[in-house]
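From: lab user (bench 3)
To: helpdesk
Subject: output format question, protein + acetyl coenzyme *A

Hello, I'm new to running complex predictions and I'm not sure whether the block I got back is the full result or only part of it. Here's what I submitted:
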Amino acid sequence: MNASCRLSALRAYTPDTVVTNDDLEKLTDTSDAWIVSRTGIRERRKLADGENASDMGLIVARRALEDAGVKARGLTHIMAATCTQDALAPSVACMLAGKLDAGPVMAFDFNAACSGFLYGLSLARSLLAENREAKILFVCTEALTRRVNWTDRSTCVLFGDGAAACVCSRAARGDDAIVEDVLCQSDGVLNGLITVGGGTACRYGLGQPVGPDFFLQMNGRETYKYAVRRMTEVCGAILARNGLAVRDVGLFVPHQANIRIIEAVGSRLGVESERVFTNVARYGNTSSVSIPLALAQARAQGRVRPGDRVLATAFGAGLTWGAALLRYQP
Ligand code: ACO
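Helpdesk reply: Thanks, we reran it on our side. This is the complete output you should expect:
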């Protein structure tokens, strides 16, 4: 497939409320020392009581459209990656289409958990292969703190909220990255390792208290092993099929789930730590938002220069994983 898919105006948003490790010590039996040594996380963001995934998505969608110089009425598609959508239906994408007054666009959500951004890049390339004139608003938005069980110390310390958006098209604009290649995979046999409840399998009657299955549950130790193995493998595979080596990559942007996972994958691939972007200390795991948030910050901090190639990789519930090669425009 022709790889001509450009990302314009990748913008990110995180809510103002900061939840520190000290705050969590007051909620559950944990400590700053444990969280930092096992995960590298020091704080994460939490959306306001009146805010939902679609509200964060709207903030960042408006920024991306304005900075890309694209009107909502000029869009052909709106797609949203999320595993914490406001409701089972309607989709966040349809809510955004309504609030942006986008007219009769194709609007849909999809769920690849933490791999959502990479799966979305693959979808955007397919949509652009079908329609060369497509202008796709691609939003990642996650309200993970809404599905965190604050009494489960093994998971509640890990996750945070946020959103990111960009416009995918063939048109060249400033501040662009070209998607050179994307490789997305899954192993559904392992679907029980990480679950986010609240779907129709949660059979609670009106007024009944919800149980643990309503929330995010994870077998962290098993997930850790697969995360390191699969992200290392998929990065090797995407580099190999493009005839590239690690030295051809300017910046490595892994999913920000745990600093130990990031370091393990970086060291197996042979990437020096100076070429690995991390912000997990400040935001924790924001699922599908993790990579675009990191990319937006890396660009703003001058860690990605025009002409640089970025290798991004992610891993999440499903299990899903993937990698993408992005080239920033000179
Ligand atoms: N504070 C203090 N102690 C804790 C905490 C906590 N927050 N959480 C767990 N512990 C304890 C455990 O109870 C256990 O105690 P025990 O030995 O007395 O039984 C001990 O610490 C070790 O627990 P482990 O689970 O073995 O700890 P581990 O070193 O594996 O770290 C972690 C746990 C951080 C979750 C790690 O396994 C991990 O990062 N896994 C991968 C998670 C991930 O990448 N998820 C990505 C997908 S998320 C998505 O898709 C939405």
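A quick orientation on your result: The pocket of acetyl coenzyme *A is lined by residues 30, 34-35, 38-39, 113-114, 153-154, 157, 194, 220-221, 223-224, 227, 257-258, 261, 285, 287, 315-317 (CB under 6 Å). Let us know if anything else is unclear.
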